[in-house]
Amino acid sequence: MSDLPNCPKCNSEYTYEDGNLLICPECAHEWTLESDSENSEGPKIIKDANGNVLNGGDSVTVIKDLKVKGSSSVLKIGTKVKNIRLVDGDHDIDCKIDGFGAMKLKSEFVKKI
To answer: Are residues 77 and 60 in contact, defined by beta-carbon separation less than 8 angstroms?
Structure first.
C-alpha cells in the first residue's frame, strides 16, 4: 500500500487517489502532489489590496469599513494598524487596534503605509 500524505486542510489520514488528484473524504478537499510540494517549499507570501508584500511588524491602513463580529461597532476606513503579525488561516493578520483591542484582519482589506 502506498503512503499518501495527510490532508493539508484537516490533517485526515484517509486520503485517496483519483487520477492525478488526492482527495480527502472527510472535508472534500482536493489537491495534487505537485501543489502540495509547491506549498511546502517556502513561506506563504501575503499581499495587501494593492499587491504590496506584507511583513511582520509593518503598519497598514484599513481601506473599507469593516463590521466587528460580535459587536455593533464598525472599524472605519482609514484606521491605522501598527505592528501587525502574519499568521496562517483565513484571516491572515493578527493585530491590536486602539479602541478595539486584539483583532484578526484579512489582508485584502488593508494597504501598506
So the answer is: no
The helix, strand and coil proportions of the chain, stated in percent and rounded to the nearest 5, come to: 10, 30, 60
Residue spans of the domains in the chain: they are: 1-37, 59-112
Compute the distance between CA of residue 62 and CA of residue 68 in angstroms, rounded to an integer: 13
Mean residue pLDDT across the chain: 87
Architecture per CATH, domain 1-37, reads as: Single Sheet (2.20)
DSSP per-residue string spanning 46-92: -B-TTSPBP-TT--EEE-S-EEPTTSS-EE-TT-EE-S-EE-SSSS-
Order the strands of the 60-62 sheet from edge to edge: 80-81, 60-62, 110-112
pTM above 0.90, yes or no: no
- CATH domain 59-112 topology: SH3 type barrels. (2.30.30)
Q: Which residue has the higher pLDDT, 48 or 2?
A: 48
At residue 44, the pLDDT reads 79
